[in-house]
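Page 37, top half.
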Amino acid sequence: MSLVAVGGYGRAELSPRSDLDLLLLHDGADPDAVAALADRLWYPVWDLGLALDHSVRTPAEARRTAAEDLKAQLGLLDARHLAGDLGLTTALRTTVLADWRNQAPERLPALRELCEERAERQGELRYLLEPDLKEARGGLRDATALRAVAASWLADAPREGLADARRRLLDVRDALHLTTGRATDRLALQEQDQVAAGLGLLDADALLRQVYEAARVIAYAGDVTWREVGRVLRSRAVRPRLRKLARSGATSSEGWWRATGGPSAAESRAASGPRSPKASWNRTARWCSPVPRAPNATPCSRCAPRPPPPRPDSRSPRTPYGAWRPPHAPARPWPAEAREQLVTLLGSGRPTVDVWEALEAEGLVSLLLPDWDRVRCRPQRNAVHLWTVDRHLIETAVRASAFTRRVSRPDLLLVAALLHDIGKGWPGDHSVAGETIARDVAARIGFDRHDVTVIATVVRHHLLLVDTATRRDLDDPATVRAVADAVGAQGTLELLHALTEADALATGPAAWSAWRASLVADLVARVSAVLSGDAPNPPEDAAPTAEQERLAIEALATGAPVLSLRARPEPSTEPSGDPEPLGVELRIAVPDQEGVLPAAAGVLALHRLTVRTAELRALDLPDGVDGSVLLLDWRVAAEFGSLPQAARLRADLVRALDGTLDIAARLAERDAAYPRRRGVVAPRPV
């Protein structure tokens, strides 16, 4: 008999609260003795309070179980002898590995499907604020799957940084188990500061960046490895066709290549043409090569001529397009062709993401854009944001590529999209810091002085349109004039408009809506009119409607607030044709007195009403009516549930105005009643 560690125990990857995966292996000669020994082994482990996953099998039974259960087979691949008959363990390992290699063409696609299903359920580890270190894509499960692929001998994972990435995730899981005292793999928000302290890291952001970096390495290694597995399996599948071609005497290289599953000549030209992301990748890498020396100069070891780069295969997975790791960044400023190829890459749409990930993995991005290191894998502790800062910048460029026909300078739009949040790697206002960085990067890339100024201005004011449109009164000429002064030119305005939409779409579904789009478009139209010199005259105050006069007279007569709450038909501005609910109209008439606006706003907050628009005016009453009335027109929507009754709103407003309702105290009391998450520290302002 022998005692064998399998799974995580077999890999020596146990964390403080991990299960023990044990297999008692026997030859089947004496079942009673085996059962007695199993009891003597298992019960002491249970008495210690340790979680135990155990089984008792003969080698034949273990082999049969592995053939039926892929997960059991994966666990046996990591079998490690603990005690007893070493020969029995060695024979099982040899048999299981041989079976795995023989069954690899059928087993590896099933393993890949398991990985994809798990990623669909758990998401991308490198983008989650509360990631599952084990199950999410790029986590420990994927690292284990890569070991299994390597054991099949069909393909191997990129080795650079992979072992270190796995070790870092294991260290974080160890600290998480020690902090929580539980067998958990989910790095919850309330535990992150304590885990970071246990690992000697500065804060929770530093912890997440370390986790994201490790996950990125593992995920990229998985992409490369599974791509290679697919290539190998396709080549095996077409061998009968190759033999048939050989017997038929076919000599066409095109036919031979198509028989092996490769693309046609036309497809190859389209995939590697001068405007493709792949071609941009290669040319960008080439501009990072050393500066050529004079013909008679003796090259140093760093600048010596290099052999042609190898064709990507399983032996060189870190060079996905045949590029090499360059020794230094390109000259400053960049050559015009290098700048054009960067713009081409950014404007290629969704394929840009995969190419940029390859550039990141090869270290080219840090050479091209040194400031990128400060935003790489930087978390954004905001429920609206789906991505880390660096991925958000690429997603914004992808979104902006769809708007290049709306602007006169698409190159400036794409570069501004890439740089608009680059200042988040520095303290203070990220727009201000980003302006300085964008100015330097744009000059380094090779834009002229005017274009550098435009890019810097767009980065500095990339939040201006949406903030102004949703928080300020667009009917106020001073508001429109302030935006026009900040923008300065029509070309800059159209760039800002396109970037505003691309930024919001890249942030997440909650950041953009038809309502926001209509407000921003309205503001852009008004600012454009000012910049073109044909701004309309300020509108005169409209005469009060009959309803407004009725409310005002009633408020004067009663000496108390009067409310009117009713729905209004919504404008059909939704691009899809479905109107977005913008709330209902709330009209309040109050005899003129101090504190009306804060009291009304407080009552709305107390009843959980979101204010979409607000307008305050003093109403001119008909002749013969003395007194002054304030009229407040609101557009409100309930945060959840149904709208409150108008009578309740009026009663609370009366109490707020006479001082018997302490709104601040009520709001503070409600806020204190919310459940608090232990250990959460507010993120630093950016």
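Page 37, bottom half:
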Amino acid sequence: MKSLFFLCSTLLLSVATYLFFPCMANAAVSIDGTRIVYPAKASEITIKMMNKGNSPSLMQIWIDRGNPETQPQNSDAPFVITPPIVRIDPKNGQSIRLMFTGEKVPQDRETLFWFNALEIPPVSAEQDKSSLQIAVRSRLKLFYRPAGLAGDAASAPNLVKWQIIPTAKGGYTLRGQNPTPYYVTYSKLNLQSGGQHYDLGNGMIAPLSSEEFSIKGMQSHSKQSQLIYRPMSDYGVGAENKTTVQ
């Protein structure tokens, strides 16, 4: 255990010499899937990674509760990660195992955690030791899904109720009410009202909760408003759909 702590501390110290980007634009290592679901009945799950680059990459894995500033040594998320640090050779894959430790979480809805994978590229002998290196982090949603939840996650985005709400400052917001026990995520939200189109970007609504999305530029709205949306499922981006807005 002491040797592992020393390795983690050394790795974190070395990352301080890199330029850090929380994106995957220049990453050589890809993660299988766009989200991770941990079913409560599973003893463990496996996340697959693949190094598509031409050089080995050192990966550090940790999970946080929603704060992107959480560092591996401060993470208190209820999961055991094996291995938490791994080298992946070029054109090779690696499986990461997650095991839930049994912390008490709500059993009537999903709980959201975040899976972090930090990729540290190698420094070749030809590179100047003072040259800037880039560490790239991928951050994926990790849903803990209790057993016996009503309905199913795939249908949840279609059950959200939408309503245009006037604001105190004279503008409007679009409120989505999620009556399901699942997180619903949208890669596209486009409101059509009064012959106008309003791009609301993407968004997520927590289980049994509501979320409001600002409608920039709306002066009035029609009773025949519609929302064009594209949900994200456990398997990726779903088909485009539309619904009536109150």
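Margin note: The chain has two domains: 2-145, 156-244.
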